[in-house]
Amino acid sequence: MDSMYTRTQMLIKEEGIEKLKASKVLVIGLGGVGGYVVEALARAGVGHIGLVDNDTLKESNLNRQILATTSTIGMFKTDAAKDRILSINPNCKIDTYVCTYPSSEIDISKYDYIADAIDTITSKIALVKEADEKGVRIISSLSTGNRIEGTYYVKDIYKTENCPMAKVMRKKLKEIGIKKLKVVWSPDGAMEGSETLEEGGRHIPGSISYIPGIAGLTIAGEIIRDLLKG
Predict the structure, then answer these.
(1) Among positive and negative, which fits the CA dihedral 26, 29, 35, 36?
(2) pLDDT digits (tens, 9 = 90+) for 68-120
(3) Which fold has domain 3-229?
(4) What is the tens place of the pLDDT at every residue in 7-23?
């Protein structure tokens, strides 16, 4: 038995280990949420991981992004993620795409599952639509900004509440005929009195160390369980 998988195999048996080794997962967005998705997939032994992000790591990422350390500042997130995966599991096959979605570089149909950790609603909707058309399983992260309560659930987006991002997405998904979407969502809402920073025309919410990690690990757990089911 490979020593890396000893404790995991106690839970999911050799068959489960082999299923994960044969699985291909695409993670789009490698920030606070997506970085933790990658971490858990790599440690579970997923054999092929695609990484999509066009950004570099900054000092402001240190408070919440697992890929951000003082030694990775300035690196592309895709490169930092690749190095981290290989330091955990050198046998993992990795695809890197230094771009934003949508992009002609990315063929989502080659993957078994997609983790959507994109920030922008327009890109999220486009990704969900393409995944639906190509029959690729997908789970999307909803908002983790301006929160300190760590309650996150896996739910269909049409059954969520108290989330402005979900409200906007539900409307757009209805318009294109998407009737269901698995999401990771918190009912807690934004922290009262929390601040938003205006930066380059974007509204940047406040964040804290553990919230993106909770959401990202919840997404990874759902993907892993689904892959084991087949």
Answers:
(1) negative
(2) 999 999 999 999 999 999 999 999 999 999 999 999 999 999 999 999 999 99
(3) Rossmann fold (3.40.50)
(4) 999 999 999 999 999 99
Distance CA(26)–CA(182), nearest Å, equals: 16
- In terms of Cβ atoms closer than 10 Å to its own Cβ (0-12, 13-18, 19+), residue 229 is exposed
Helix (H, G, I), strand (E, B) or coil at 172: helix
Give just the sign of the alpha carbon dihedral 20, 136, 219, 197.
Answer: positive
pTM: 0.96
Name the helix (H) or strand (E) containing 163: none
The residue whose two tokens read 């993957």 is 111
Integer Cα distance of 204 and 198 in angstroms:
6
What is the number of other CB atoms lying within 10 angstroms of the CB of residue 109?
A: 11
Segments making up each domain of the chain, as ranges: 3-229
Please report, as a single letter, which amino acid is at residue 227: L
